[in-house]
Amino acid sequence: MLTTRHGVRPLGAADLADFLALSDLDPVVNVFVDHRARSTNLEPRWLGGEVWGRYVDGRLVAACHVGANLVPVNASPDDARAFAERALGRARTVSTIVGPHEAVRAFWQVVSGTWGPPRETRWRQPHLELTAAPAVEADPRVRRTTRQDLDLLYPACVAMYTEEVGLSPEAGGGADLYRARVLQLVSRGWSFARFDGGRLVFKAEVACMSPHAAQVQGVWVAPDRRGEGLATSGMAAVADIVRREIAPTVSLYVNEWNTPARRAYEAVGFEETARFSTVMF
């Protein structure tokens, strides 16, 4: 077995079973990396990056997804520091570090002097899960979107992303790529919305899924319709469809300061199970 400093080495297709077993130790928190591993077979050409594993006594104990998103997997602070030391040996290519708070913080403490300053940091984001039927009535007007909805859906996706991230996904010529991503989610049946009077007033998407969970992203309500409960009943509808047709558990993470969103998710029945952190460049 080829190893490097601190027992860290790149993983490949031959390591898929070990990686999935590691991910299964916390399958809902790890839904993103589980989805990436299953859909790419850990092949770098499909990953658009690498997945690193850390071995102790020949056993895989932690991993780190290194693509556009850098995501620690079941990493202790010591594991995260080992991954960070490997990361310092290469130029920063990631746009976001995201994952469980303690691992992200430990990683960032090592690389911040070289990789900083970040555009924004969000240090304590509640990670939420729903494992039962929604606690409120679902909005019957929420449905899966189709390609015919794109003229209304795409501007809402751009608005949500810009509001959430502070930067338009179309910046720097990214419109075609982002539009393709929106279409991909629509074609998978992972895009949901409610339309009133010829306009989109609520939307959400599934970002990734595994046999264990589906992670929801992009929850958005038209600004002039906020405060009406559309997010609560809309998320109940999305969660109901997702649990019935995609995966048994629905997860998401939310900014700590977003009180309206947190109240809506709590009303639906989501419960906090972890804290995430995000560092954006």
From TrEMBL:
Full protein name: Mycothiol acetyltransferase
Listed Pfam families: Acetyltransf_1, DUF4081
EC number: 2.3.1.189
Organism expressing this protein natively: Nocardioides dokdonensis FR1436
Keywords: Acyltransferase, Transferase
GO MF annotation list: mycothiol synthase activity
Domain of life per record: Bacteria
Enzyme class: transferase
Chain's gene name: mshD_5
Entries under InterPro entries matching the protein: Acyl_CoA_acyltransferase, DUF4081, GNAT_dom, UCP21603_acetyltransf
Bilayer-spanning residue ranges: none
Start and end residues of each N-acetyltransferase domain: 140-281
